[in-house]
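Handover notes (outgoing to incoming on-call)

Open items:
1. Secretin/TonB short N-terminal domain-containing protein: sequence verified, structure written out, both below. Nothing else pending on this one.
2. Nothing else urgent.
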Amino acid sequence: MSEVHPGFAGSAGRSVALCALALSWLAGTAWASDGLASPLREGEVPAGAVPGTDDAALAFDIPSLPLADALKRYAAVTRQPALFRSEILAELTSSAVRGLYAPDVALELLLEGTGLVAEKVRTGSAITLALKPAQARAEVPRAASLGSLAGYPSLLQARVWDALCGNARTRPGTYRSLLRFEVDEAGQLRRPRLLGLTGDAARDAEMLEVLRSVRLAHAPPPDMPQPLTLLILPTDARGGTRCRDAVGRAPS
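Secretin/TonB short N-terminal domain-containing protein structure tokens:
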């Protein structure tokens, strides 16, 4: 099983990235789900992202570490320095951050549970993040903080994965691909496209057909950012999840 890291703090037009071991929304908070793919390498930038900008979506792979060490790794990826008094970091441990996130969101996840918050300090074109203790506030259960998004990404991820596994030609395991699609009000996947080809034109075409056939019983939450992006990795990449033993249907 893996962790899912979604988010919804950004505008409705922002993309959402779903990875087989790390389902990641480009802006938001962290939650758990069953994993179906693998996270990108730390610092890997998707097409169209500009490192160091507020809107860039960067790939993070930061485990739970002493907070000072985690902040160093965060700064290495984002090139955004953080200012803090060393004593406020003493004995604090970061939360793990794995997946695609805007820098602001990744830092929020990193600081989760530490009692610290980050405040932006702008000096001309430069941005520095100042860490300070958060004001005391009542704990909000994680599930409640997810609002209407709770559970939907993992369900969507599972349906897409099962659909790909159910077709002998598109069955994951030997190829890498980056898919993008939307989900309409009826729960139907729409406008599928491949951002990363598999190297097999017939399989690429079949993947689009498979995606068009996916439909969920429930409409997506109205506050879910779209479009969605799904990264499929070979099973030998970081021990990626395999399809079940069922044999996929023969390609038409």
